[in-house]
């Protein structure tokens, strides 16, 4: 066991800290293009998001391992440096680089499987935030069983003609492009009939309807396609290979949904809240039942933090076994966060149910909001039940459910 | 950066596991716990001592291996996996830690060397410091000790007893003293021994540094809690393996029960709950050795958390085995009971969580 990152990283950390000090208080002149872009402090320098992204790339604090010719920094991939960058940016309140499905999912996919032309056309613009992407995977009748999707793509005179519907499309209303799974080979077997297409969102025939969720925000959309026509070249991989192309990125999504350090920050905020809030003149933190549950959750979050160090270590040290430690993260992390936010609502009682701009609202209503938001994350990206199937079948080697006859 | 057990630690752990697989099968354990395996018990004790388990935490200058708590945690995991009928916690973890931190040089020479040479063995009576139950407690006066200890750990084969009063002062008594009465207690877990000890004006050798403040006793209990968590971690991992194996063999309704989603999900929940406990136990042991500021909170939390996770696994893994899980024949109950007793030793979860809150000035 050795938790030191070594002298090279000590220096790197110093560099990052001095960068953060220089840019402390920086904020954006342009409106957030997507709800996934970070909230920033007011005060300090004003800058456009695109400019900020380009500064981060130049310094090597973003797109580190993406080749220069596609707009990246062109360095080695380094998980420890990424971790130092993330934690120092957060400590200093400096806006972290943009995330989102384009950067986290499409870019790695194109770099691995895209054509040279596609890489040149899309990667740099996506990194700079000039192109925002949305993901067109789920359909009303293709959720956990994604491969049963039915949106149709026909090749007619050098164009794909697309008809059908997608759902749960976050950021569709801000996006310039969609990466989309479409059934192009209706005669082929389920998984072999899908292609991965790139669709400009301003193409005629696309209709976006916001889908308001239980938090009363339109975090998602429905997207309808009626004879949408896009060039034949807008395909990643070959016809019928879309399932494999998509799977390269699904794995990525599952790992990135939960951050134990963020959850521990919430534990600390809850402790602050429980020191201020009282029932019958007694501080919540002094009420034994609440104390006990709080300590139990703090322990669980600590266990999750240790687990993530183990996962990190396995990325650096080849041959270290962490298959199960990585596999449980989505299930464990989302359920834990939901439990924590829900516990916070409970300790505040009726005050915990206040919402929107109600009088007496605490912490901007964030506990109730995140309690619901994390229920969404428990379901999205593979529900907890799907995760348990994966853990049991791939992690523990248990047998698959027998196929129902005739399906 | 490397997070995990080192090659040396894994090697030692494997040696312990291999020895136990060869010499402490469930059949052997059954014989011992039914009181018919004295020779088998001796063989296990001397075999593990031959591996150096007694001197693990004894400093080099007193003839020990001078290894750290992470090493001991790795060993404890193996002992728990195999429900080993062996006293590790008291004589070979808590005693050397207490003596290393709390005793005079003269005491160190006397006791630590004897531990390393396997001449003496300590039982531990600290329960009254953690939570004294009705009518228990001891008082030290004029180098004599009087009173009653309700729940002494690892009394079997012990020559000495390390005991504490309610304020955390620690003393050593020789169990050969005629003024000591030992009443053996029967718990559900028969792989280790527990007793009540009544002391009537018994000579005591006090640990000087433990009289000043609670550093020594806290350090000793922290170590003990991490080792108990590691034992339950090992026991739980065996239960999950057994449940998964059984579910792949047992057939009902024309298919293995492991193909039913209800059973799969139980196993997945157990695995997901336990997996972070490996990292947590190792991390807590590492902090104990290297990051003392974080160590107290970590060892409280790891003890209560692993206890809670293991309790649920003990239940679910038994259920996966169906009726057979409930029988003595299958022996699942050995792991169930080991976990059950570990959970209460050195503080049940609620008491330990309250301690965790106080450590943070909450």
Outline the structure in words.
- The complex is a heterodimer of chains A (407) and B (362).
- In chain A, helix 1 packs parallel to helix 3 (79-91).
- Chain A is globular and about 75 Å long.
- In chain A, strands 3-6-7-10 form a four-stranded mixed β-sheet.
- Chain A has 407 residues and is of the alpha+beta class.
- In chain A, 44% of the residues lie in helices and 15% in strands.
- By secondary structure, chain B is α+β, with helices and mostly antiparallel strands.
- Helix content of chain B is 56%, strand content 14%.
- Chain B is built from 13 helices and ten strands.
- Chain B has a four-stranded mixed β-sheet with strand order 1-4-5-8.
- In chain B, strand 9 (251-252) and strand 10 (255-256) form a beta hairpin.
- Chain B starts with 6 loop residues before the first helix and ends with a helix.
- Classes of the chains: A alpha+beta (407), B alpha+beta (362).
- At the A-B interface, helix 8 and helix 12 of A face helix 8, strand 10, helix 9, helix 10 and helix 13 of B.
Descriptors for this entry?
heterodimer; A: alpha+beta; 44% helix; 15% strand; B: 362 residues; alpha+beta; four-stranded mixed sheet; 13 helices
